[in-house]
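Input for the complex:
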Amino acid sequence: MTAVDVRPPLVETRSLGKTFDTRKGLFGRLLVRGRHLIQALNNVNLTVDRGTTLGLIGESGCGKSTLARVLLRLQEPSRGRIIFDGEDITEAGPPRMRELRRRMQIIFQDPYASLNPRKTVEQIVSLPLRVHEKLARKATRDRVADMLERVGLKAAHLNRFPHQFSGGQRQRIGVARALILKPEFVICDEAVSALDVSIQAQILHLLQELGRDLKLTFLFISHNLSVVGYVSDRVAVMYLGEVVEIGPARAMLVDPRHPYTQSLLAAVPRLDAASGRRRTLLSGDLPSPLDPPSGCRFHTRCPHVMAHCRVAAPPLGELSAGHSVACHLYSGQRPAGEAS
Amino acid sequence: MSTPALGAANEAGQESILVINLRKFRRDRFAVVSAVTVVIFILMAVFAPLVTPHDPYDTDLLRRLQPPVWREGGEWSYPLGCDALGRDLLSRIIYGARISIFIGVAVVLLATVVGTLAGLAAGFLGGIVDAVISRIVDTLLGFPYLIFAIGLMGMMGPGLENIILALVYKEWTISCRVIRGETLAARELEYVEAARAVGASKAHIMTREILPNVLSPLIVVATTRMATIIILEASLSFLGLGVQPPLASWGSMVSDGRAFLLEAWWVSTFPGIAIFLLVVSINVASQGLRDAFDPRLR
Amino acid sequence: MTASAAPVEPLLSIRDLEAHFQTQVGLVKAVDGVDIDIFPGECAGVVGESGSGKSVTFLSVLGLVRPPGWIAGGSIRFDGRELTALTRRELRRVRGKEIAMTFQDALTSLNPALTVGSQILEVLREHTPADGARPAEAQALEMLSLVGIPEPAIRMRQYPHEFSGGMRQRIMIAIALACRPKLLIADEPTSALDVTIQAQVLDLLMALRHRLGMTVVLITHDLGLVAEYCTRVIVMYAGQVVEQGPTRSVIDDPAHPYTRGLIGSIPRLSRLGEKIRPIEGQVPELVRLADECRFRARCPVAEARCGARIPMSDLGGGREARCVRPGGRR
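Predicted:
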């Protein structure tokens, strides 16, 4: 982590929750009975300190992308608060949100779907400028050209269309669009996951460089533990809409405490694998989010499951400074006589 | 699996998608021939006064039911023969093209504008707007097209404007459904989300981000619908509910010839062939367009 | 010819393979002079990024390259037969029965309108005589339980969409293995899966490999997977094989600058805090390629000699690299 900052964390969530209703339309609401609510986020408490990167790990369906969208108010939270730079923005009205949007941005996963195929690079990258700063045409163009060069493209690319670029170059365009207003907070939602390894490394490099120069605060979402470990100061792990462990990157990836984090880490294929190493393999699939398990949500797959886990959900409790885990193995409240 | 490197910035990429699509269209011989036929019909309609040998309204009872040129009694200056009032059939068919094509274009244009606006609003705004528009569309689609139009014409009375109105009343639902579906899909795309994330307004997102991307299926639908409209107009005119004499419409011409089918088949047949040719050409050409524009077939 | 000192005859031997695609930008040489040997019983990893030609190479083996692509030359010998000389019908008999392939996207590779049981039966009936010793149903059931599908008798009658991604991948493996092929080509079998499910599926695949005595080719973009599961690695770049050899020695001491760059690009959990070193630039377009090293424009150690067509050089110990100065770091 970086030097001590007396200001409050840049981004904070308090008991954030998001529930989706799977029923469609008027008739759906009247006719569908039984389970129809998906708790995509449940009681999420996170803080992202200024100038740091919080990595967010989880498998598909764990709610990490929903968290990104709720944080930016692209989707409305169902419960809890979102605090940005000390201000509660959970219910900020459209004019205020519009002002805030220049300070928070997102880089998407799919470099193909995230760029409008019918717009030129100039139109795409200049959109934030046109919305927030009414500059003259020439000035806008210059700013866009500058930004393009900063992300490793050329001013000559201004009038080209997205389909004329490779995946890596497209992602650079996405980065340029997100950073042209010099935001403070940037969410990378699987921003390098769709890219080839050598291109992924280029974009990671670029993000780190720009992050340093522009003093950015990142929320870096990925299912790739190695990538998250590489860019993050702190790492949070999500499972079925809940944060199960959060802590300093090194501690999380060298000595993970939650059984889920441990098995995630064990499943990562490694370059330096000693062939035939023993791994704790998770059995079974992710339970349906429509019908999450009672008690600890991980108990159906946990290798250390105890009777207690099936009934009571473990709270996120601090193990050591800045390292918290939601697991009965580490909570003082676990039934006496049980060995871990 | 890895597609052979087409992703990298290529030189052909300098061309817009439209140019690539049109080049693909050109390779489809059938579609090209059909498109040319359609264009000939349109040119004929536009320059009707210059290309017709006679005034289509000029009656000459001496030439009553005169046969086409290759039959006994036919002559070169009236190549397709004459109708019951001795009017030149070729000239009437050429003028009839004006009516058919004008009605087709007018109905499709009006319906597309209305349908696009409604579909965009329903798909993007959702909620109550979507519920209301979708219910109206469902209700209108419940009526058989021709019967619906006959009913409306009965209420409004025949005439050129009324026939256009009567068809637009139902026709807009077609483009509305297409646009609504496309908009629903486009709304979830990341680039639309990206525009929201930078704080762009709803109006901007609807008109600048979504609309341009939902238009190409519309072009295809609109051309196909043109053919249907021409048939419907012909049907209404055939029933006497369409354009009124002395205006010549292909449908009313077929109707006029009914009484003489045995002695003078040409009076009904040639306008019928004109309808057939134009409709088939439009359909084949629009199928070609669809193939060329469909990204899945690219 | 491979100078590999292996005394055994390869099960699959690809020589000078050329697969071309006609595209709007011109002729794309997706596979350009590829030599690959796969030995019986081994698990070989084929690694490369998009456009490296790794998938097209093995689609060629099965005769599955479709227009606008075609096999423009070369030889593919499998178990003593020349596959490129077979008729379409003969090839179909080899495909599925002797060589099977699984694909990345199990949902689109399975027919959504048929139950998974009938899809396994279809393969069995296609390739085994009707008077087979055991009814095909029993075999299908056995395959499903072999790949770890719980309650196979019930699941047989379900449709692909009723299974999770990991389960679908298992079903695809069951279909592929239904006729006990000698060679299984697994094309990115786990790229669409979460990391914990990926580990389950690959461990299963390896267990089945031992049990059925199968040879496996694992096509992937993830060098980590190869390190974990494969004894030998073949690295492809821009339509060519650039390096091959025993996995450990290639990863620990890569000879080709591309392999070095690829390894340097991967963040490693065991080396937190260490900087990655990306390869600059991008994969060349595979049209109008000059006769030179394909990696020349991105290579940090390129020199004048790289401007010619570079042959594979034998490095000993079963290793080869397509570089004028393999392992050279100066």
